[in-house]
Amino acid sequence: MSVATLGIQGRCAHCQATLLLKPWQLNAIAINEAFTCSHCQKALELRCPQQIKRFKSLDSLALVRASAMVTLCTALLVALVMEWIGLISVTEQLNFSLIAVFGFFALIDHVRRRQHLTLVLEAARVHAD
Ligand SMILES: [Zn+2]
Prior knowledge:
Elements: H1 3-6, E1 9-11, E2 18-20, H2 23-30, E3 35-36, E4 43-45, H3 49-84, H4 90-115, E5 118-120, E6 122-123
Parallel strand pairs: 1-5
Antiparallel strand pairs: 1-2, 3-4, 4-6
Helix pairs in contact: 3-4
Residues 12, 14-15, 17, 37, 39-40, 42 line the site of zinc ion.
């Protein structure tokens, strides 16, 4: 995964800097490990359950995108077949296709906006073990 496409930022609890999280930092978050701030080098972790949930849902967003593509192709194909067997007119088929394409891009745009999040990071607890 690339940082540029994900665009996930994190705010450091120590220095309040907003960091564009690097792949290794995203990895650490994914496995609930502490990592250091690239600005002040102090230990950070993501502890808020809601934010962790949102972070983990990014994977399923990619899945939503893929299945939306399949749905769009199916919808366009169905419209073509319906026009071909005379169930709908050419105009209806074009309208339907336009709506399907429009809906697809609206969803992709929504997914893209959901991916731009800023995580509020907390100071990592010192583990006793
Ligand atoms: Zn920092």
